[in-house]
Amino acid sequence: MTEDKTSSFLRLIRHSQRGKLKVYLGYCAGVGKTYQMLQEGHRLKNEGIDVVVGLVETHGRPETARLIEGLEVIPRLRQEYRGITIEEMDVDAIIARKPGVALIDEMAHTNVPGSLNAKRFQDIEDLLSVGIHVITTMNVQHLESLYDTIEKSIQVKVRERLPDSVLAEADQIVNIDLATEDLQERLKEGKIYPPSRIETALGNFFITSNLEQLRELTLRELASQIDYRRREPLEEEATIAPDQIMACLSSNGPNSEMLLRYASRLAGRLNRNWYAVYVQTPREEATAIDSRVQRLLAGTLTLAKQLGAMVFTYKGEDVVDTILRFAREYRVGHIVIGSPRHQSLWQKILGGKTIVQRLTEAARGITIVVFDTRKGETTALKPAEEPPVSSTEAAIAAPAVSPALSNLVAPQRIVIWDNAAAKQEIIGGLVKAACASIDTGYENILAEVLEREKQGSTFFNEAVAFPHARIDSISAPVIAIGITKKGVADVKTDKPIECVFLILTPAQDLSAHVQILGLAAEAARNRHLLQMLKTAQSADEALSMIKDCELLQV
User: Are residues 368 and 433 in the same domain?
Assistant: First the structure.
């Protein structure tokens, strides 16, 4: 950690309203993440910054404990759980104290049941939302998308995980690296674990091959994050290339979680939006599948959202046709699908084809990635020859739209429901608000949106919904926003829907459709913005909140 890096974060926190997040990333316990975080806390304090220790775990390490001395420590919150007293970070106390910077260890930590939030990274997001800057620590194996990779290479199931988007949205990431031999030496000297655990650790998790693999994963992740931040795609590349990612899900597919994590990593490498799509056939209606399958499907779709996907359900008799219709509508360039189920001899004799075979034959200009989900394998198999990008799609012109959501919304197109409202009422109200600024009739657009909803509900995401349609009679995109403070009365989701983005785009402009949908999805992933919008008392106030959040992201 250099003085330049400390000064860089110092400049960030002096020029911001929403809190900034800095992450010390390591590949294993004992590399020095907490130590470096506390050292920076002292340097910031010496610069006149108000620094407190929100929560730091010393794990019995004397040098770490000594570094806490001289820093104000916020007392922990004591909670009873199953007869045991557990100490957690006191989020409310930190907010009441309102320091400039809070030092918080172990961002992936799971809080005791009954806490304000389920995970510590959510506690951190709450602190950031009120303007408190946070410096925190985590190990690479806690990233959700790396779960299968870690299990296969290290033979360890990581129980505490967080979405990749949390790390991706950090303002600074610092890799705390240490040679594996030096780390093992620190372990032998008793600087990581107590003497009783040293031999066991050296013979299991801390073996050289494990540490080297984790170290390599950390360096790759850091390189990926640097590349993601550095890359500013050319306007033509960002809007013309059909490179959105689509993961195809089934109600009872094996290893769907692994498929989603692979799709998440692929989308991250390509720096593209990605979608998780479930096609519900008539035999998979909610009344036709048992409760176990329903729970499995709900869990899979929740994980997809946590990994950053936009989640959609489509209804269709023909799965392949429905997948390809979605791919054309959303300019998908890569389809990730699980390996086909085993065919009987009679099916083969009669010429029956699997969904994967039909999809590969029918797709044009799309790369099909077949992910082996049969026995927990993590190998992704690509066809020997990738189909070329369609020249027709490549010729579509880039839309002339502003990259700011606030430039596409006006107060008259923001509707607030203080009480629970039915889905039809919300869609109707938003269509009416949208039609106030365009010539096309209300009835026609409402019919288009409702027809699109029949094909596949967009009210399946937790907290947000994205009803949308491509309209022949409009020449520019239109967005209307609904704030539903008590949720949608007739739609059951694990988390009530708080915000609805109605998106109307010209039918002939596929690029605008995808770009605007991605813009709304980015806003919907902003927890700070959603929390603010729930408090809005007027459309003007809501629009002002959107603009404020955009300014803080610059």
Answer: no
